[in-house]
Amino acid sequence: MDLEIQFANPQQRQFYYSNSRNQCFSGGFNNGKTYAGCLKAFTLLSTFHNYRMAIARQVYADLKRTTMQTFFKLCPSELIERHNEQDGLTVLKNKSTIFWLHLDKVDENTLRGLEVNSVLVDQAEETEEKVYDVLDARIGRWDNVEIPASLLAHNGQWPRNPKTGRLIAPSYMMLLTNPDTQYHYIYRKYHPESLTVDPEYFFTEGEWDPGLGSEETYRNALKKGSEYIEKYVLGKWGISNAQIHRLLPESSLEFDKDFMEKLRTKGNLFRSLDHGDSSPTCCLWFGVFRGVYICYREYYCPNEVISNHRKAIFDLSGAERYSSNFADPQIFKKTAQKAGGFWTVADEYLTKEIDAPPIAWLPADNNEHATRNRINELLRPADRFKHPYTESSPAPGIYFIKRSIENPYGCYHAITQLQSQRRKLLGYFEGKAIYCDDREDSVTDHAYDPTRYFVAMHGSPKTEISRPVSRNTLKYFNMIKKMSKGALVAAST
Q1: CB atoms within 10 A of CB 298
Q2: What is the dihedral of CA 15, 17, 21, 23, to 10 degrees?
Q3: Cβ neighbours of residue 164 closer than 8 Å, sequence gap 6 or more
Q4: Cβ-based neighbour number of residue 66 at 10 Å
Q5: What residues have CB less than 8 Å from 272, skipping those under 6 apart?
Q6: Cα angle vertex 372, ends 394, 448, to 5°?
Q7: Which of 165, 242, 245, 197 is nearest to 26 (CA)?
Q8: What architecture is domain 249-458?
Q9: CA distances (Å), origin 486, targets 92, 151, 193, 474, 489
């Protein structure tokens, strides 16, 4: 069918016509993101017969109230064969199908079973990276799409699947998002200023468009707090007051082979573990060296059995000697039965029944709020610390050696997840965001928790100035020393 399209702003047009497989439309409120996304979705569904698309949002009530309503304003009712809101399914008369997904309670196995051409995620900043990764892997899985003869006539070289010979329909991973911090996975993957952006990904962003809503509402928005204006009016990504930790650039170290050798041979070494069954297991290696903490190695692996984790951690550890190994206290709870008794995950890391070197863990302190402050004290430059490379002061008290080609097991998740942790948003008061002390539980923390465990268990480096020993104390110790020597002589004779 012919569409008479009118775009409210250049960003809508850029997003609609983008041919990149992965594309993101970011910006403040009222800049037409949802409209542009639904328009592109409707164009694909109505143009190609038997096309399949998943349209998702974190909360189903929001999906119905906003995204779904916007789509049905664009889609004429005479094109709809059936719509089942309870099942989250819409089928058009040309057999194209929409799967309406809410991602807050979605089963990952269900997502892995999706056979779709494209995915559209509204308010994508609310979603977890692991959900995004699963959805991204389902793009282009459905190959029974019918390409209209009119399009084939205009393009005689229409792409085909080299294995099946079937014509390939255009497939997209489309994100509609409000800005978050620069540590959010969307920023890392899509934003042009990110150091890890994929150059093939499309990204556009725009401010609040006063022409798309009430002028009075727009003026009221400009009266709100600076964080609100930056994020929801100007559409800028950046630091939020919700962020719990702020890692300064000097705390991220480039790999230095000579320094690494000094750290491994002269430092006081530790390992810290967060075990996951369905979620990733992460082990971090820390060294205490010259009065500061340095995280120098990271093992991060999902969907593996404990024997593989044990072997990998053992192999990476080499001949290093550790003062202690800390782990999530949950793995010491006896919740499973084995051989007539109760069994723990910690026991699985020790048992000889598994063909892998055993590792003994100690339960870590899981007092999160106290540990948070300790981490922030270490992240803040202080006179008592010296930078491990430059020896300049003031300097932070904790460092992470980054992953690189030369250092493939350097820190990546430990750095990104530390910076990604944020407080839960309670709401807004007179335009100012109000956060509680609880941590947002939708943010991935598998590599953050081992950092907490290590800092909580090891404590802060000594900061008190040594006090002189009194004469009476010295006299007492000398007396004890002489008595000990006398006892040893008597015992030897």
Answers
A1: 24
A2: 0
A3: 143
A4: 15
A5: 283, 284, 286, 325, 326, 327, 364, 450, 451, 453, 454, 457
A6: 100
A7: 197
A8: 2-Layer Sandwich (3.30)
A9: 98, 102, 72, 18, 5
- Please classify residue 33 by burial: count the beta carbons closer than 10 Å to its beta carbon, then call 0-12 exposed, 13-18 middle and 19+ buried: buried
Q: How many CB atoms sit inside 10 A of residue 131's CB?
A: 20
**Encoding tokens for residue 2?**
């012919």
The tokens for 426 are 């309670």
Query: Tokens 């609609």 correspond to what residue?
Result: 16
With 0-12 / 13-18 / 19 or more C-beta atoms within 10 angstroms meaning exposed / middle / buried, residue 285 is buried
**Domain extents for the chain?**
10-233, 249-458
In angstroms, rounded to a whole number, what is the distance separating the alpha carbons of residues 367 and 453? Answer: 9
Task: Tell me how far apart the alpha carbons of residues 113 and 90 are, in angstroms, rounded to a whole number.
Answer: 18
Q: What are phi and psi of 253, to 5 degrees?
A: -100, 140
Task: Give the SS3 label for residue 189.
Answer: helix
Give strand pairing partners of 202.
Answer: 23
* Mean pLDDT per 10-residue segment, the chain (493 residues): 74 95 94 94 95 93 90 93 92 95 79 92 91 93 90 83 88 94 87 87 92 83 79 80 86 95 94 90 96 96 91 94 93 66 82 88 89 93 95 96 95 91 78 79 90 82 41 54 50 42
Residue pair 106/119 in contact (Cβ under 8 Å)? The answer is no
Are 10-233 and 249-458 the same fold in CATH?
no
Residue type, 179: P
Please give the Cα distance from 120 to 189 (Å, whole number).
16
CA–CA separation, 290 and 267 (whole Å): 8
d(CA 351, CA 25): 51
CA–CA dist 6, 36 (Å, integer): 10
Residue with tokens 């089942």: 84
Domain covering 10-233, topology? Rossmann fold (3.40.50)
